[in-house]
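[agent] plan:
  1. take the single chain provided in the ticket
  2. run structure prediction with default settings
  3. attach structure tokens to the ticket
  4. add a short note for the reviewer (M.T.)
[agent] executing step 1
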Amino acid sequence: MGRRAPRLQPEALPDLAPASSAARQLQEVRMFRNAMPRYEILSQESLAVLDKGWRRLVSDIGVEFLSDRALDLFRAAGQKVDDNNVRFDPDFILEQVAKAPREFDIQARNPEKSVHIGGDSMAFGGVYGPPFVREGEVRRDATMDDFRNFTKLAQSFSMLDSAGGVICEPNDAPLDSRHLDMIYALQTLTDKIYMGNVVSGVNARDTLAMTDILFGGRANIEATPATISLINCNSPLRWDDRMLDAQFEYSAANQPVVITPFLLMGAMSPVSIPATLAQQMAEALTGITLSQLIRPGSPVVFGSFLSNIDMQSGSPQFGTPESAVGLLCTGQIARHFGLPVRSGGALTSSQVPDAQAAYEGLMTMLPSFLAGINWVMHTAGWLDGGLVASYEKFVIDMQILEMLQAEFTPLEFTEENLAFGAHEEVGHGGHFLGAAHTMERFRTCFYRPFLSSSDNYDRWMRNGAKDAAARASDVWRKKLDEYEQPPIDEAVREELEAYVTRRRAELGD
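[agent] step 2 finished; step 3 output follows
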């Protein structure tokens, strides 16, 4: 009663009436908007300390850029360049950062699935980068079929805005040309936005060429971006040539880049959250500065991938309290600079989709909402420290995401929602099960999870005594069975296919 629920999956309300008018209203605005207050934990004094920290890093220690083109731009702009190391004037960095847009749109081939990055908008993409896949009890190398399956699952869940980019690394496809098949799958198996390939400048140019085909030319995608790409820093304080080559291509074409330090405290940054935040600011702001030198006003996202290592084993840890605190700080820091922000996701160190995977995933997904993160990568499927894309974990994460979207949808307070008439009808000591107010709303008044079981024990046993992972396995298989490929203009599809075939031959594959 009174709470608007985001769009529910068909299995969430089996054999029930259509959604309420409030739910239908949210369905019309497909993107999730987080209208809740932000949870900000940094005082002005703390921000001032961090400000001094990043300024000292960029000016006294400097940041390495392994790209002659980048060094030439910095040198021409009056920054101190010594070999590959650049020492910056912090005020120059702020001047460049101020050129980046606070908010921007990314068009999807289905206009209803275009997204807005910044402000109150939250966009969610799938897992990115794992070389392995887990299907039930089996952990194995990822294949191109797995990549296509995860792409189809992303299309099938309405709460996800993008399949992502390198959802998994298809090890059965040739290394030099697999990016072509991956982009083609993202463009044809979904009609949502997708991420560009960043392995090299060549791969970025192929992504842009295929995006030109899909959206009718370079002018169209420069006017409204059509892809978004992840540019990772090789922390501490180094930007590598391959990532920079891709950044040059995307920023020059006015496509947004997510400038992301890769920080595991104790390995890539000091064992201190404040020190890590200052380093993150130095790395992200210098990368963003480069994008503005490449093309002033090109869209960027202040990126964060921040967690810590286990100081006994040296292994990365995810879903930790430290990563959650860092995430909350990052959202506030990005707003301080007037930039959209990327962080969060359903990260876990667990090797299987168990209770640890769920609670660690929630430890980063919940602060993603509290911090007002605009672009959330790794929303679904991340397992085993990011080494594995898991089918069952994908579904579990979709359940968590849908529940959080319901939780973070503001309540409506109206005279009708106070239900005074129900009190008049029931009176003292009665119950509301048969009240007219209840009978009018019982089908849609409360959120119903599509994955959870609320059966009594006997019925649960009769239905196979399945835990959440087993039920998730049933869900993803059913989703793939029911998947329908979104329509695409056949001439465009043929042109994309011809480009992939030609480029594969040119690359020797």
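[agent] step 4 note for reviewer: The CA atoms of residues 35 and 107 lie 23 Å apart.
[agent] ticket updated
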